[in-house]
Design a protein that fits this description.
alpha+beta; globular; M1 Pyruvate Kinase, Domain 3; 211 residues; 8-stranded mixed beta sheet; 27% helix
């Protein structure tokens, strides 16, 4: 496994319907080493800090295998950074990642905390109003991670996958549960046992109280 691309974004305007918003979703590959710390990827823009960024969603990762699938599905070549990820990995190292799985890249140690939840910005970025639904149906969300140990990362660096020894839920199961109309309390409780990102944890606790 290796880092295929490190991607950084600068603030840009994006039209969503009749509204124009500022976003950092437009990311470009860079060749230099980039520092990753508990607050995120240095030099990257997080425009909406209510739903993105922060210690529990410091880094967003996507895989080249998923890019290959999307390129075939959409019948067009997609370059790393298209989905707004900070790190594009050659693969994720497991058939299905779990919350709590880790990636070691040089000194940097990342822990998987959540699935990426698509929004209108992604649909506008892809130029397809129906892309959120397509993204949900594809069940290829990529993962957010917290930074347990800071370090520098560059394209070409080796990645070591460190699976969690705990029976935590799979990321795709968390993703499915988020978009489900009926949420099983047992599955919500199982999610809360895992080291979920705080935003996801708050949503799960709210749904559990409603159940």
């Amino acid at each position: 496994m290796q880092v295929v691309s490190v991607n950084l974004g600068s603030p840009q305007s994006l039209d969503i319907g009749k509204k124009t918003v500022e976003t950092g979703i437009f990311k470009r590959p860079v060749q230099e080493q980039v520092m990753i710390s508990e607050q995120g990827v240095h030099g990257d823009t997080v425009a909406n800090k209510i739903h993105h960024g922060g210690p529990d969603q410091a880094v967003y990762l996507y895989s080249l295998e998923d890019y290959d699938w999307w390129s075939q599905t959409l019948d067009k070549h997609l370059i790393p950074g298209t989905f707004g990820e900070n790190l594009t990995l050659s693969q994720f190292g497991a058939p299905s990642l779990k919350i709590g799985d880790r990636f070691q890249i040089n000194d940097a140690l990342l822990e998987v905390t959540a699935a990426r939840i698509p929004c209108a910005k992604l649909a506008a970025r892809m130029g397809d109003p129906g892309f959120v639904k397509r993204f949900v149906q594809a069940r290829r969300p990529g993962v957010y991670a917290r930074v347990l140990e800071p370090g520098t990362v560059a394209a070409g660096d080796a990645v070591t996958f460190v699976p969690t020894p705990r029976p935590y839920p799979e990321v795709v199961a968390i993703f499915d549960l988020w978009h489900s109309k009926e949420r099983d309390p047992a599955r919500l409780e199982a999610g809360l046992v895992a080291p979920l990102a705080e935003r996801a944890r708050a949503a799960f606790m709210h749904w559990l109280e409603q159940a």
